[in-house]
Amino acid sequence: MTRDPNGKPDLDAAYALETPDDNRKLYGDWAKTYDKSFAQNMDYQLPDHVARVFAELGGSGPVLDVGAGTGLLGEALNPRSDVVIDALDLSADMLAVAGQKGIYRTLIEADLTKTLPIEPEQYSGIVSSGTFTHGHVGPDALDKLIALARPDALFVLSVNAEHFEARGFAAKFDALAPKITGYHIQTVSIYGAQGDRAHTSDKGHLAVFRRA
């Protein structure tokens, strides 16, 4: 796992994550400064895009924010939609920051690659921003999320466009066709013009669908 020259967590380090332990260590180090050192400095737009699409499509709650981190997606969704939101994340440190914002009903510390401590069909909406990127969470986690959703639950999940096909997400959504309806992709910019110029062209695919 890499760091910037000053030894601080950065985007390249996040993209290099391979294991749950790597994830916990990086985001444990980053939690208290993440909103400013990453989201603000990079002009991080992805949570806002996910929240906007969910609200525009009339998403209802309760909602599970998958990979909630410090609660950026919850913050973006809260003023747009009057829904109850739960936060799920691998990092207890990131969840602690999210919990201080008064957005979430419940904070759930869990690993998407393991058994989740949630009963089936609990949610009418499932959203995620930035979790399906270069880290250890692959497309197989989608099966677990669908199991948590009620019939007709709305999903808006961001997937890094760079590896949507290469890491098997496109094929996974094809395989999920009998379980989902209305599936389509919206492509958005992950970062705004005020962020790092090296990443202003980075794109995310928003996978939008409902549970059948």
TrEMBL record:
Q: Does the keyword Transferase apply?
A: yes
The UniProt entry, under SUPFAM superfamilies, shows:
S-adenosyl-L-methionine-dependent methyltransferases
Arranged from A to Z, the UniProt key words for this protein are: Methyltransferase, S-adenosyl-L-methionine, Transferase
Q: Name one GO molecular function term.
A: methyltransferase activity
What CDD domains does this protein map onto? AdoMet_MTases
One annotated GO biological process? methylation
Read off the InterPro entries from this record: SAM-dependent_MTases_sf (IPR029063)
Return the protein name: Methyltransferase family protein
Q: Which organism is it from?
A: Litoreibacter halocynthiae
